[in-house]
Write a structure and sequence with these properties.
Blueprint (H helix, E strand, L loop, with lengths): L1 H12 L4 E10 L9 E4 L5 E3 L4 H17 L3 E6 L15 E9 L4 H14 L5 E8 L9 E4 L5 E2 L6 H8 L4 H6 L4 E8 L4 E5 L3 H12 L3 E5 L16 E3 L17 E5 L4 H11 L6 E4 L3 H13 L4 H5 L1 E2 L11 H21 L2
Parallel strand pairs: 10-11, 10-13, 11-12, 13-14, 14-15
Antiparallel strand pairs: 1-2, 1-5, 2-3, 4-5, 6-7, 6-9, 7-8
Helix pairs in contact: 1-3, 6-10
Length: 349
């Protein structure tokens, strides 16, 4: 969302109005998940993506109409070849997309996107909220930010009644669960900790998707470019392809809000990364391993001067025990453990 905010600010500074498309709902085989966003300029060029293909092409056309009308719209697309609402796709699935009109003549829009940019770079979690009225007309812009303390940014586009209702809540989530006349959609913005995934194989790929949805900044590290690339890892905030798998420890700072997950392609690489990880102050270090492999690695470390206290920092076997088997289930298990550790850190435990 940071790149979206920066592109929006650049256009507004140049006096260019544009449309912002935000996927509110997706089901089936849609190209991108809910919360994906892109900006559409009057010349049909875009910043960001909602997945390409016919969904994106149809969204661009709807955005151009919104620009011409200077008003927002909600578009629903059926990714099938037949049917009244079908758009000629064969993958199946449905998507609901909010298209907002962003005016270069409204100073409040520049302030909103500046706040969105700051929130996207923060290590505290905010939420982008889209409010869709049940009966009345859409506002020109239908999104605002719920900041970590529950206050709102960019909500001035809504009417007095909805503003009063929003301001009456005790927290961001309470506010939006109490809305009666609007459907509310919340999407995480910013980072509530950074997960560094060493290994972009099947487990690393699935994990990058899951941890992104619960508010972690996600960095995937693998020395194989055929695995570590944006096509396979569209939700990753950053992808690093080093010459050696442990090279990022020479340039990155890993602190208490860093979560290191080791899911490389073999125990040699696991041990290589673990040795370096234990020399950091990362708040979490987890390594996927059988107990036999784990114990072998631990013996090597103890023989080389690592201490039992060092070993005690490692979560291995990794993840909450839910009898996970598939990469998807393992990703859920690991993410659950990350959430648990993060919650304990927040409580000071």
């Amino acid at each position: 969302m940071k790149k979206i905010a920066e592109a929006a600010m650049e256009m507004l500074a140049s006096g260019v109005s544009f449309a912002q498309a935000l996927v509110l709902e997706s089901s089936g085989s849609t190209p991108r998940e809910a919360g994906s966003a892109m900006l559409v300029r009057p010349d049909k060029t875009i910043s960001g993506t909602i997945g390409g293909g016919v969904l994106e092409a149809n969204t661009v056309n709807a955005a151009i109409k919104a620009l011409a009308d200077k008003r927002a719209a909600v578009a629903e697309f059926v990714l099938e070849e037949k049917g009244a609402a079908a758009i000629g796709a064969v993958c199946g699935g449905r998507a609901k997309v909010l298209i907002d009109y962003i005016s270069a003549d409204e100073p409040a829009d520049m302030a909103f996107f500046e706040q969105l940019r700051r929130a996207s770079s923060s290590n505290q979690l905010s939420h982008l909220a889209a409010l869709i009225p049940a009966s009345e007309s859409l506002a020109r812009r239908n999104i605002c930010l719920v900041l970590p303390d529950g206050t709102l940014a960019g909500a001035e586009v809504f009417g007095p009644d909805i503003l009063a209702q929003l301001r009456s809540g005790n927290s961001g989530y309470d506010v939006f669960t109490n809305l009666e006349q609007h459907a509310a959609y919340l999407f995480p913005v910013g980072s509530d900790g950074t997960v560094y995934i060493f290994g972009a194989g099947h487990c690393g790929e699935k994990l990058a998707h899951v941890v992104h949805t619960v508010g972690f900044e996600t960095v995937v590290i693998d020395d194989r470019r055929e695995f570590a690339n944006a096509a396979r890892l569209p939700e990753a905030d950053d992808i690093i392809v080093p010459k050696k798998l442990d090279a990022p420890f020479d340039t990155l700072a890993f602190g208490p809000d860093s979560y290191i997950v080791i899911v490389t392609r073999g125990h040699i690489y696991d041990e290589l990364v673990l040795r370096r990880a234990l020399r950091t102050s990362a708040g979490y270090i987890g390594m996927i391993a059988s107990r036999k492999k784990r114990d072998t690695i631990y013996r090597h470390l103890l023989d080389d001067g690592y201490t039992p206290d060092d070993i005690a920092r490692v979560y291995s076997p990794i993840g909450i025990d839910i009898s996970a088997d598939t990469p998807e289930e393992i990703a859920v298990s690991i993410t659950a453990e990350l959430i648990k550790v993060r919650a304990a850190r927040k409580r000071g435990g």
